[in-house]
Design goal:
The protein folds into three domains: about 1-155, 3-Layer(aba) Sandwich (Rossmann fold), CATH 3.40.50; about 175-270, Methionyl-tRNA Fmet Formyltransferase, Chain A, domain 2; about 315-565, 2-enoyl-CoA Hydratase, Chain A, domain 1. The protein has about 575 residues and is α/β, with parallel strands linked by helices. Helices cover about 35% and strands about 20% of the residues.
Length: about 575
């Protein structure tokens, strides 16, 4: 069928639905509705779709569109749930299970007939994590079922007047409901609020006399202080005391004098470093642009001792002959500092006596390449872009040059741009069935680097590599496996991914043919180096990237700025793929 996706932006759920509906053989176009109802009408007139699917959150569809066409809304709530903030209420109320409903658009909000629904468990994770994973799994299953029912033509959608459906209206979840009372909220309450408010714009709070928005929250088992007191930093995050413990907050977004949040967020300590020190602050430790001088940096070892409950964005553990180097950066973005720390950890992992090294393996995002928010906030975006890219290249090159063991990239969620190329540097790529890959740099108007001109063609062939990078469209995990981008699909839930990767890695380590594999890998890398050295790939790619970074008129700068600010058109599919970007 011809299907039109209508969404506010080409967000993670829209990308997944685009990829999976395309896998089913449907011709899928996308209309980004940020420009208003007339843009949606124009897309409908031009494409004449048989079915319109609108993944929420999305602007209301024009009445003339939903009256003249079958329009299915993908709502992140169970049947009968109504109101503008369904997932917010589920997390705030501690729901153990929630749902997704595909319903037909009509005049009354959320009251249309039900075409399909699916339930999902709600883990103790950030709202954006749940949205990208458990909710996305349920939404994809429900949409595919609804589309199949529509195509068959015999299914009669279920009205919400059905006595088996309990209708519950929930008002909009107000930001002030998540304001943290540091004197009275216990750690569990603080974490629930932080996890529920990790997306836009964050949780409004005050630090050092300045209003900021908080993003992300993780428990701390040892540090203690007066409620609300800032205790320490670690790898860009801040530790803040609660009345009965402490939490780590990875990112902040300053509030402008106008009262609006700053357009993008960045590592919490780097934001705080620009604030004046509190009057009662002690001598602290020597500071830097990434850490306020009055707070100590409290490090933890890469290999955390058993029983510790604390935050670290990079961790190493070992099980027999398998090493696991996991990392989790907010939004999958990797700043210059992130890349350098991960490279140091990777080099440490190479000193351990293992025959298999797993890179990644955590639930949710794998990596999305350079940290555009940090770049945009820099006083020299071109220079920071260059530093970030060099650090990314150093990391990817270290993986490519590893010849004494098998390296597996375990992709638990989505990955894009340089994050995909980091995964492709490994010997095997395992991807959770449900992940979406964007193996291109098209949304930023640049050629790209991270050795993609070596890694991508050797996996999928030159012709497919050219198509993937020029079309700049998302690829489902299933298609990625079919074309050779991924070696193994891992068909488990998000919460089961880490354990399943550990089991599969143990099988690889126990393979009696492993030594031969490692020898063959070493031989192949040597032959590739003789044919064309990695240094030449790097030099050619970086020359093109440098030209884009340091040319103030290059499209990269405007596209980067629009991307981090979430302006209309961000992340849209390319026109070359016959996709409407309304």
């Amino acid at each position: 069928m011809d299907i039109l996706l209508v969404a506010s932006t080409f967000h993670s759920l829209s990308r997944r639905l685009y990829a999976e509906l395309s896998d089913q053989g449907h011709r899928v176009d996308v209309a980004l509705a940020a420009h208003g109802a007339d843009a949606v009408r124009a897309a409908v007139r031009e494409r004449r779709p048989e079915l319109i699917v609108a993944p929420m959150p999305a602007p209301a569809l024009p009445e003339d569109v939903w009256r003249e066409h079958t329009c299915l809304l993908v709502r992140p709530g169970p049947p009968g749930d109504r109101g503008p903030s369904p997932l917010d209420w589920a997390i705030d109320e501690g729901a153990s299970e929630w749902g997704v409903t595909v319903l037909q658009a009509e005049a009354a909000p959320d009251a249309g007939d039900i075409w399909a629904d699916a339930a999902f468990p709600v883990p103790q994770a950030a709202k954006s994590d749940v949205f990208r994973n458990e909710l996305s799994d349920a939404a994809a299953a429900a949409v595919l079922l609804a589309v199949r029912r529509f195509a068959e033509g015999s299914f009669k959608p279920r009205p919400q007047s059905d006595p088996g459906i309990r209708v519950v209206w929930r008002d909009s979840f107000r930001p002030e409901q998540r304001r943290i009372d540091w004197d009275n909220d216990d750690t569990r309450t603080v974490l629930r609020k932080l996890r529920g408010g990790d997306s836009q714009p964050g949780i409004l709070d005050e630090l050092c006399g300045r209003e900021v928005y908080l993003h992300g929250g993780h428990p701390e088992d040892r540090l203690r202080g007066e409620p609300g007191e800032l205790l320490a930093t670690r790898s860009g995050a801040l530790c803040r005391a609660t009345r009965d413990g402490a939490v780590w907050i990875p990112e902040l977004r300053p509030r402008r004098s106008s009262g609006d949040p700053a357009p993008f967020r960045r590592p919490a300590a780097s934001v705080l470093s620009g604030f004046p020190a509190p009057p009662d602050s002690g001598p602290g430790m020597p500071g830097s642009q990434d850490r306020p001088y009055w707070l100590p940096e409290i490090a933890v070892p890469l290999e955390l001792p058993p029983g510790r409950t604390t935050w670290a964005d990079i961790r190493y553990r070992q099980r027999g002959a398998v090493g696991f180097l996991s990392f989790s950066f907010p939004g999958g973005a990797m700043s210059t500092t992130h890349c350098r720390r991960l490279l140091a950890a990777y080099r440490y992992a190479l000193t351990r006596p293992t025959s298999v090294l797993v890179l990644g393996g955590a639930r949710d995002l794998f990596a999305n390449g350079s940290h555009l928010h940090v770049i945009e906030a820099s006083g020299d975006p071109a220079g920071e872009s260059w530093s970030n890219l060099l650090a990314m290249n150093d990391l990817v090159e270290a993986v490519l040059r590893t010849t004494d063991r098998v390296v597996v990239a375990a992709v638990g969620g989505n990955a894009a741009a340089g994050g995909v190329m980091l995964a492709l540097a490994a010997d095997e790529v395992w991807c959770r069935a449900g992940g979406v890959l964007d193996p291109h740099y098209g949304n930023l108007g640049v050629h790209g680097s991270e050795f993609w001109t070596y890694s991508l063609p050797r996996r999928v062939g030159a012709e497919t590599a050219e198509r993937l990078t020029s079309e700049a469209l998302p690829v489902s995990a299933a298609t990625a496996e079919r074309i050779g981008l991924v070696d193994r699909l891992v068909p488990v839930s998000p919460g089961e991914f880490t354990a399943e990767v550990e089991r599969l890695a143990a099988e690889v380590a126990a393979d009696p043919d492993l030594a031969r594999r490692i020898t063959a890998k070493t031989t192949a890398r040597h032959a590739d180096e003789l044919q064309r050295p990695l240094a030449e790939y790097r030099r050619t790619e970086l020359a093109r990237m440098r030209a884009a970074f340091f040319d103030p008129e290059a499209p990269y700068h405007a596209l980067r700025s629009a991307f981090v600010r979430g302006l209309p058109g961000e992340g849209a599919p390319s026109p070359a793929a016959a996709v409407v970007t309304a």
